[in-house]
Design a protein that fits this description.
single chain, 361 residues, alpha/beta, Aspartate Aminotransferase, domain 2, Aspartate Aminotransferase, domain 1, eight-stranded mixed β-sheet, four-stranded antiparallel β-sheet, 11 helices, globular, binds pyridoxal-5'-phosphate, transferase, PyrdxlP-dep_Trfase_major
């Protein structure tokens, strides 16, 4: 926490705005809008997953539709497709950013179109905070007129060619879950340049109540709005977001500086124009065996590290879904490891972790 979170939470109590609406919600949304892009409209929600669910619904995804989704991601990117009774089609990553491969995406679209199925949306993810190939992916989206849901859950504070992530898709989504770069303990946001998207998202997120004196409903609604208490935490967190990004980038640079010399450990570099918040620092080891040796050596010292996300096309729940893959994300999963990356790590901690890894390699 940065310090002012409790002040804003206290304000919610003092003014009795203990509800899923109130001044903290409005001001938190404004703070995100000011940070990301003056042209975006933000709806604060109960989670990033809720944001992805609403984004797909706003783009017209429904029963029986197909949605293209980056395979190399956390399951919350794909689960909302299933909530709507639609079918995910998984697409592999490229090795420059570890995100959606433009070539495989276009191949998938062409093949689905040839089979008479027009995918309703593309879910592209800025994984670990690294922006996806925004120019190439946006071009494909425009060419085939398939809208993008930009899963920016891990990428608040990242940018591409000087423009902040969250503002590239037809609809963008942030997460403020406890593990993200800033947090409201649990929370999320939907972002769009189209004000109608925000209005509809808020409408659906507050039980879709029609304009009538009694309770009348002509849509199925959800209870997805953010609490005014938690939005108070969010306001305080926005004040320290840039510090958190700096701390995460420091972790990454420290690991890279100490682990690349005379080793076969690789890091994910920022291509020119890309700026990652370095939410998590990830390394690529030469093999699954080396990765496991490092992970277990750290675990022996009570230090948690984790394999990279297991691709969705390899997950038991999605095993029957079509996929357009070339082994890239499977290889990343086998050889990759997320190192301890908290914003509160001390240099002493980093030295200790580096020494243990060096001992293995
Ligand atoms: C965390 C995360 C989500 C889900 O956000 P929640 O706020 O936890 O629901 C979605 N996509 C990705 C890539 C994430 O890392």
């Amino acid at each position: 926490m940065g310090g002012n979170e409790q002040k804003f939470v206290q304000e919610a109590f003092d003014t009795n705005w203990v509800a899923p609406l109130g001044p903290n919600v409005n001001n938190f949304e404004k703070a995100i809008e000011n940070y990301v892009d003056e042209n975006v409209h933000v709806a604060a929600l109960s989670s990033g997953t809720a944001g992805l669910h609403l984004a797909l619904e706003l783009l017209g995804v429904g029963f029986g539709d197909e949605v293209l989704c980056q395979s190399f991601t956390f399951s919350a990117s794909a689960n909302p497709i299933k909530y709507l009774g639609a079918t995910p089609i998984f697409v592999d990553s490229e090795s420059d950013t570890w995100n959606l491969s433009p070539e495989l995406l276009e191949k998938a679209i062409k093949e689905r179109l040839a089979q008479g199925k027009r995918p309703k949306a593309i879910i592209a993810v800025h994984l670990y905070g690294m922006p996806y190939k925004v120019t190439e992916i946006t071009e494909i989206s425009k060419k085939y007129q398939i809208p993008i849901v930009e899963d920016s859950a891990e990428a608040l504070g990242s940018s591409y060619k000087g423009i902040k992530c969250g503002s590239f898709g037809d609809i963008g989504v942030f997460s403020f879950n406890g593990n993200k770069i800033i947090t409201t303990s649990g929370g999320g946001a939907l972002v769009s340049k189209n004000e109608e998207h925000k209005k509809k998202a808020v409408f659906l997120a507050t039980q879709a109540r029609d304009d009538a004196p009694h309770y009348q409903h002509s849509h199925v609604g959800y209870n997805y709005r953010m609490s005014n208490v938690l939005a108070g935490i969010g306001r305080g967190q926005m004040e320290v977001l840039d510090d958190r990004v700096a701390a995460r980038r420091f972790n990454h640079d420290f690991y890279k500086e100490h682990l690349t010399e005379n080793s076969n450990i690789e890091f994910l570099n920022e291509p020119s124009g890309y700026y990652s918040n370095r939410w998590l620092t990830c390394i690529l080891t030469p093999s699954f065996e080396v990765r496991e040796k490092i992970r277990l050596a750290l675990l022996d010292e009570d230090i948690e590290s984790r394999p990279l996300w297991k691709p969705m096309h390899l997950q038991p729940i999605f095993k029957d879904c079509a996929n357009y893959t070339d082994g890239t994300s499977e290889d990343l999963f086998n050889r990759g490891l997320c190192l301890p990356s908290g914003s509160n790590l001390e240099e002493e901690d980093l030295h200790r972790i580096v020494a243990l890894i060096k001992n293995v390699i």
